[in-house]
Structure formats: C-alpha cells, structure tokens
Amino acid sequence: MKLQVAMDVVTTDAALELAAKVAPYVDIIELGTPLIKAEGMRAVTAVKAAHPDKTVFADLKTMDAGELEADLAFTAGADLVTVLGTAGDSTIIGAVAAATKHGKGVVVDLIGVADKVTRAREVTELGAVFVEMHAGLDEQAEPGFSLATLLNQGETARVPFSLAGGVSVATIASVQRAGARVAVAGGAIYGAEDPAAAAAALRSPSSDAPGGPPSRQFCLNAKKHPRRKARVLCRVERVRGGQPSSSLASWSTE
Amino acid sequence: MKLQVAMDVVTTDAALELAAKVAPYVDIIELGTPLIKAEGMRAVTAVKAAHPDKTVFADLKTMDAGELEADLAFTAGADLVTVLGTAGDSTIIGAVAAATKHGKGVVVDLIGVADKVTRAREVTELGAVFVEMHAGLDEQAEPGFSLATLLNQGETARVPFSLAGGVSVATIASVQRAGARVAVAGGAIYGAEDPAAAAAALRSPSSDAPGGPPSRQFCLNAKKHPRRKARVLCRVERVRGGQPSSSLASWSTE
Ligand SMILES: [Mg+2]
Ligand SMILES: [Mg+2]
C-alpha cells in the first residue's frame, strides 16, 4: 500500500515546506483542491520541480471540460489528476484522453456519489487508474461519518481504490486490510506538530519499509475497456540508503 | 434578465483582454473554472481590479471545504462563487457562511444533478442566491442535449435561476421567457470574431438597454431559511451616458 499526503494548505510556499518535510516517507504528493484554486498550476510545477522522483497528484476535482483541465495539469507536471465521480462520463473520457496523450493517469474521486460501488466499476471501465473512496472534509465533520462504510465499499467494488477520509495511525491497518492501493492522509500529517514523524508513523510496515527489495515495479492496472487498449501504468522504484522508497521513474504506460 | 459572460480562457491576460472588450455589455463577469485552476485567485483579483463596477463571478465549482474555498475567492475580490449541487449540504452551508461574512453570494451549479428541480429548491433553502441550470461543455457536446429541458426545469423549480449551456442570439429570447434571472453566455461571446458585438447582440432589449431608468436596485432574494435570517442581496445600478448598465455598488445584504 502506498502513502499519499494531501496538502490542504493554501500557498505554494506552505506546500513546498510541507512536501520537503514529508517526501522521504510518502509515495504520492497531493496538491489539494483549495491549493490549486488559490495558486493555480504554478503550484503543481513548483512541487514537481522540487520532487521529480515523487508521483505528483493534482486534486483538480474536475466536473466539466475534462480534457482541458487534465491537459493543463499534466502539462504543468502532474502525474495523476482527479475527476469527480459525479461528473458525466464524457468528462471522464476527456480526462482519460489527456492522460493517454501524456502517459499519465486519471483518478476518479467518488466524493458525493450515492452508489460508490457501481460508479467505481463504471469509471474503471472508462479508464481510471484507480478510484478514491472519499469522505470530504465537510462530510467527516458531520455526525454519522464512518470510515468502515468507505472501506466496505472499496472491498465490495473489487477495483483498485485509494481511501481518503479518516486515515490515521489508529485506522491505517484497517485500510490496508481492506485492500486499498493507496492511503491518503491529510490532517493526520499536515496537522501534526511534526509532519515528518507523523508521515513516518503512517507508513505501513508491510509496504515500503527499508529492507525491502532494492528495486521493483509498481503497477496500477486499469481494467481493459472494450473499445480501448488495456492501460497499465507502472513505475520502477528503488530503495536508496536507509530512506523509504524513492520512485525513480514516473508513470509510464506498459 | 442579466447577461453573464463565462470567460473559459486559461490565462489572466486573455481574461483581462476579453473582459475589457465585453464589459460595457454584460452585468456579470465570470472567471471559468479552468481559468481559476490555471491561474489561481490572482486572476479573480486582477479582473475585479479592472472592473470594480461589475459583479465578478468565480466559478469555483466547490465540492468540499465550502467555507475555505468561498472565503479565498471573496477575499480575492469575487462577488459570487459557485458550489456544486452534487456537493453535500454541509459544503453549501459552509460557503453560505463565508458569503454572509463577506456580504457576498453563493450560486449553486446544478451540473450533473439528476433531479435539478428538487435540488434547486433544497439549495435555495440553504441560502443560495440563485441556482445555475447548467449543461456543461462536455454535456453540450453529447447527443440529445436540449436547452428546452434545462429551461423547463428552471420554470418548474420556481426559484431564482440562471441558465448556462446553449445561450446564443437564437435562444436568448426563450431563456428570458422562461424567467431566468441571468443568461450565461460563453462560447457565443468568447468564440466570436468580435466578442463585443456578440455580447451587445445578446443583451436582451427588455433588460438593460440604454434609455432605462437612470438608477435602480437589483435584488436576488434568497428564500428565508427556517433557522436563518432572510438574505436579500442587492446592488444599485445606474445607466451612464449611452452605455448599457454599469453597476456602481457591489452586492450587499439588505
Ligand atoms: Mg484532496
Ligand atoms: Mg463556468
């Protein structure tokens, strides 16, 4: 399981500062939606320039103009972008077209989707590399929010998924047991007094601890679309010195 | 009926150039979602600085962190922001809280909402100043798209609404007949060889043509929420010289 830090800060400087602290312990660095709206694509470019060996995730939450928005972010340096699961299929297809052009990937964020299991399967067919089982910041603050429901939906869908919403040291083992490919931690890292220590503590012992194989390939399999070539996004990762994994290649289509 | 130009360009320079051409003929200047994601809030600030007498509409399409995102845009100079109708109620309530603090307004964009009539009524209760009956750029390109369906939903909902998707000189009379408060034109203006002439042609003769009253108040009534003070957003507008209306005051809560 990979660890993703969601940088829900609102300035590029704060993002660069946070990324510098936590990069050794995370696989995917996410620029949160408010950060992108506050600073624009230059924030994506700045983070990718500072961390060329990390997967940079632009949480665009695209609802329309899928190809245009995805193209802007990939051109700026993003490796993965999000489209909303509540968006129409043509928006997702447009973003996937841009991803194919750039050799990058689209993640579909299922925030606000009523039937997450069905939509997860649909958008995987459309070419999403994985879906994000996601309870938003506002939703997490509502009474009745439950991480268990999200995990159950991820397990039931049987497609590659990440989990965002309530990931902490107390819950990360359950996230891994449910089969998530990626655990997304936001406040548990950026809200900590020592974000580096918080990220290190979240890193799952069975995933990328020092001592693992010195080099290996990590692939995200997008289910074959009937009218489309199968897409498999992979990157090669190596463990350097005592540091947790550093990915030395960016996403590529196999 | 007001005329809103949706600036679906991706650089602040292009937005400022377009706004300068069309400002005399429009009431509301919209920074499109891709523009905001490309350039950040500095684009909002630049457009408001260049057109302080216009209503500046930041099409944030917020899906989460409603209060934070709305606050960023209002602080940058926006008068109106959008939240998605597919967002949870707590996200809309958060954005409305930010609007109340700043004396500005929230518009709920119904793109992607299956039952637009019901959701329109719900979000108006939550404090939206109006809803946007909206077919996205991707949806308009799909077979079967019909402006008539959108207009019918607006009429049926019986709450203040704008219409976005397919507004042109050929359709704007039907938009006005359906009772829209605002007609949103994008490609019909920015895609025209002469955007100023296109905007002038779209201006409805019965709305803000020269010769109207020299000063008047334009209000958007948000239906009273049971647990909230009634909110009425108004601005005073004057007609100067031969120019169509220029609004001289920004939104304020009555
Ligand atoms: Mg995020
Ligand atoms: Mg727009």
Tertiary shape of chain A = globular
- Average pLDDT level of chain A: 85
Largest sheet of chain A: 8 strands, parallel, barrel
Bound molecules: magnesium ion
**Helix-and-strand structural type of chain A:** alpha/beta
Radius of gyration of chain A, taken over Cα atoms and rounded to an integer in Å: 17 Å
Poorly predicted ranges of chain A (pLDDT <50, ≥5 residues)?
207-219, 221-232, 234-254
- What percent strand of chain A? 15-25%
CATH-defined superfamily of chain A: Aldolase class I
CATH fold category name of chain A: TIM Barrel
CATH C-level class of chain A:
Alpha Beta
Which protein chains make the most extensive interface, counting residues with beta carbons within 8 Å of the other chain's beta carbons? Answer: A-B, 37 and 37 residues
Q: What is the number of beta strands of chain A? A: 12
Helical content of chain A, roughly? 25-40%
| CATH architecture type of chain A | Alpha-Beta Barrel
Number of domains of chain A: 1
Order of helices and strands of chain A: EHEHHEHEHEHEHHEHEHHEEEE
Oligomer: homodimer
Strand order of the largest sheet of chain A: 1-2-3-4-5-6-7-8
Structure, described:
2 copies of one chain form a homodimer. Chain A has 254 residues and is an alpha/beta fold. Chain A contains 11 helices and 12 strands. The first copy, chain A, has helices at residues 12-22, 33-39, 41-50, 66-76, 89-102, 116-125, 137-140, 147-157, 172-177, 187-190, 195-202, and strands at 2-7, 28-31, 55-62, 80-84, 105-109, 130-134, 161-164, 182-185, 215-222, 231-238, 246-247, 252-253. Chain A has an 8-stranded parallel β-barrel with strand order 1-2-3-4-5-6-7-8, surrounded by 7 helices. The complex binds magnesium ion (2 copies). Residues 6, 30, 32-33, 59 of chain B line the site of one magnesium ion (MG). Chains A, B: Residues 203-228 are annotated as: Disordered. Chains A, B: Its EC number is 4.1.2.43. Chains A, B: One of its GO terms (molecular function) is orotidine-5'-phosphate decarboxylase activity. Chains A, B: Residues 2-202 form the Orotidine 5'-phosphate decarboxylase domain.
